[in-house]
Amino acid sequence: MNKLYIGNVSEEASAVDLESIFEQWKIPYSGPFLVKTGYAFVDCPDEKVAMKAIDTLSGKVELHGKLLEVEHSVPKRQRSCKLQIRNIPPHMQWEVLDGLLAQYGTVESCEQVNTETETAVVNVRYGAKDQARQALEKLNGFLMESYALKVSYIPDELATGPEGPGLGGRRGMAARGTPRSGSPSLGARPKMQSDVPLRMLVPTQFVGAIIGKEGSTIRNITKQTHSKIDIHRKENAGAAEKPITVHSTPEGCSSACRSIMEIMQKEAVDTKFTEEIPLKILAHNNFVGRLIGKEGRNLKKIEQDTETKITISPLQDLTLYNPERTITVKGSIEACAQAEQEVMKKIREAYDNDIAAMNLQSNLIPGLNLNALGLFPGGASGGVSPSMVSAPPAGPQGAYPSFGGQPETETVYLFIPALAVGAIIGKQGQHIKQLSRFAGASIKIAPADGVEAKQRMVIITGPPEAQFKAQGRIFGKLKEENFFGPKEEVKLEAHIKVPSSAAGRVIGKGGKTVNELQNLSSAEVVVPRDQTPDENDQVVVKISGHFYASQVAQRRIQEILSQVRRQQEPKPAPSGPSLARRK
What we know:
583 residues, six-stranded antiparallel beta sheet, alpha+beta, 34% helix, flat, 17 helices
């Protein structure tokens, strides 16, 4: 089916106007434009042309001052479990996309479509129509690495599986098809590779030598080191350096790194380039502190053992959505290769330790989707191994136990330094809007209690996963913006309101429950005595600690409140005729 729906059409627009736009962008059409009030329809010769029209025109071309919206025309009766998702970042990892899609239900298949666009396109089949509908509503316009996803229904005849037009071979979350040359590709996940790939920055002038004539050099490196190497040529157009991602075992990554350094050195000699070419490694900021070590001991030891000089880019260079720091290593190729092994060993150890901590969270929040949280490196720096994460249960309602079939909405009051309010809000409120959309939560900053108030209250409302994501980003932002010292852990106070009748359950007999909670979470948990309940007959529970500690405590308290609510629910009256007891 190649019929297109054209939306947001001005009342002044005519069929001739639309014809001229299609002709201007060299998009063939096989029938007349059917123009209605505010929208129009047209047939394309084939699916490839229809895709080109969508990618070229939708949200990009204006007609009489209004941006056109172009998508497949799918009648309501044909809307099924199948969606097409476009404008996916070209270097996005499959694990991250899988995690995002799984939030809305059971994904039966996800297949990459070959296109001529810079971004990637996939066709997705959900287990139920309402799951597909929810995914479309939530993901259409969703920002991923500054790319706004475009989601539309596809009718049955367009999603025919691997034998269909232009589809890769991924069926039932199995192997993915190989895109044709030049087609953008989601980062594949080779077997037995490290969960943390090696990320390098190389001078743009050496990229051609690394790739080689018709890709011969990079193919040789890939073959010899048993690795998958992505050179992100289209990132940061005009930049002096380009990132390279190497997916392999730690040994394969190191071997590829050495080969790339040798190629750059040879190219420098051939082109009479006299400046020193250091090794530059990109690492997620979550791991850099542990690489440096207490008082810089880890880094000093690596420098001494490998006879290199190592510097790390400052925190000020980070942004919330680009959280990598540059580790610059200077020395001989042999010395830099040894330093790479030691640096990445520390980075991978930090990652493994964080996975263990996150697994605790996934147990405390049943089905917590770690890939979707965005607290670990995503498309750029490796994803969470799927074997370490329990998948969310099938069904449209997500991963959380709830009443009435929907995730329970929670409100948490998080207290941040008053001076940090501007950083959280961002210029013209852009940052807090982006954060709210990313987390799927309502985020509001309450007015100050007074001119000299040292803290401000952030009110976060949303289900458990939204709470985790929003609070995690706020903790991270405060660290990145230097509101806490380089060796100081970010610790914040959070308040949860509980019914006054349930406060005793949180405290426990003789304080037993609250003491166990503090021992489990390492957070300080206080239910202030002699509180006067508010107008909703609620009192405050105060939680103080670092991010993971606070999350453990919050989840346990919410679990207690869920138990209280279940016990207070009226038991359903027996229905139907009662059976006489057999004598």
